[in-house]
């Protein structure tokens, strides 16, 4: 049976562990240098200096914060793997890069391209020909329609809808339930229906 270790013993880590379990992958340990307990869901939590004690040679960063995932991915030299929940529906022509987690009930359709260390959360839909860059988080029940491009590190809120042929810049934030009908620039925070820019994230 395949084994992995997860970086980050958090609430998000619990969900990522469930994704691994659904795919018959054993989580040997959570790696966390600031642990709040000795184990999480009966899996030991260990400091990063001890991760070589485990058989697993594949890892996933189980942290929801996009910026922190990027920082860790640059510091850690281990091999990353992809986790896909058994209930997800993935087109055979879709491409999913290393470190990405695809959660339960998701749909990823034809010729979609998903970058590294992306989170596609519960019941999200990514339609045909979308391009999702590295470190993006697509929240539960978000709908990304066809030919949408989402830049690095952007966060798409729960239940948001992005209409076809839209470009979302890098490190943007789309609020929960927002409906995006226009392109969104880098670092913008957009809320509402139709979506409007409220401010800009700190670069």
From TrEMBL:
Which residues does the entry assign to the active site, renumbered to this chain? 128 (proton acceptor)
Q: Which InterPro entries match?
A: AcTrfase_PglD-like (IPR020019), Hexapep (IPR001451), Hexapep_transf_CS (IPR018357), PglD_N (IPR041561), Trans_hexapeptide_repeat (IPR050179), Trimer_LpxA-like_sf (IPR011004)
Q: What is the lineage of its organism?
A: Bacteria, Pseudomonadati, Bacteroidota, Flavobacteriia, Flavobacteriales
Similarity comment: Belongs to the transferase hexapeptide repeat family.
Sorted alphabetically, the keyword list is:
Acyltransferase, Repeat, Transferase
In chain numbering, the residues marked as site (Increases basicity of active site His) are 129
Q: Does the keyword Repeat apply?
A: yes
Query: What's this protein's name?
Result: Acetyltransferase with multiple hexapeptide repeat domains
Q: Which GO terms describe its molecular function?
A: acyltransferase activity
Sorted alphabetically, which PANTHER family does this protein's record hold? ACETYLTRANSFERASE, UDP-N-ACETYLBACILLOSAMINE N-ACETYLTRANSFERASE
The PglD N-terminal domain, residue ranges: 3-76
Q: Tell me the domain of life.
A: Bacteria
Residue sites binding acetyl-CoA per the record: 137
Which Pfam families does UniProt cross-reference here? Answer: Hexapep, PglD_N
Enumerate the Gene3D superfamilies for this protein.
3.40.50.20, Hexapeptide repeat proteins
Residues reported to bind substrate: 10-12, 64
UniProt KW Chloroplast keyword: no
């Amino acid at each position: 049976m395949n084994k992995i270790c997860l970086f980050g013993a958090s609430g998000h880590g619990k969900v990522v562990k469930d994704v691994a379990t659904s795919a018959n992958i054993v989580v040997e340990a959570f790696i966390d240098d600031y642990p709040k307990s000795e184990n999480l869901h009966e899996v030991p939590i260990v400091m990063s200096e001890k991760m070589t004690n485990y058989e697993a040679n594949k890892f996933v960063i189980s942290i929801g914060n996009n910026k922190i995932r990027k920082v860790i991915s640059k510091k850690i030299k281990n091999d990353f793997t992809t986790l896909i929940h058994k209930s997800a529906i993935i087109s055979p022509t879709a491409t999913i890069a290393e470190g990405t987690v695809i959660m339960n009930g998701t749909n990823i359709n034809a010729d979609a391209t998903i970058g590294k260390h992306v989170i596609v959360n519960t019941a999200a839909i990514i339609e045909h020909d979308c391009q999702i860059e590295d470190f993006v988080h697509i929240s539960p029940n978000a709908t990304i329609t066809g030919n949408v491009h989402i830049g690095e590190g952007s966060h798409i809120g729960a239940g948001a809808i992005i209409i076809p042929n839209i470009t979302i810049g890098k490190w943007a934030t789309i609020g929960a339930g927002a409906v995006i009908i226009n392109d969104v620039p880098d670092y913008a925070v957009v809320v509402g229906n139709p979506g409007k820019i409220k401010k800009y994230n700190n670069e």
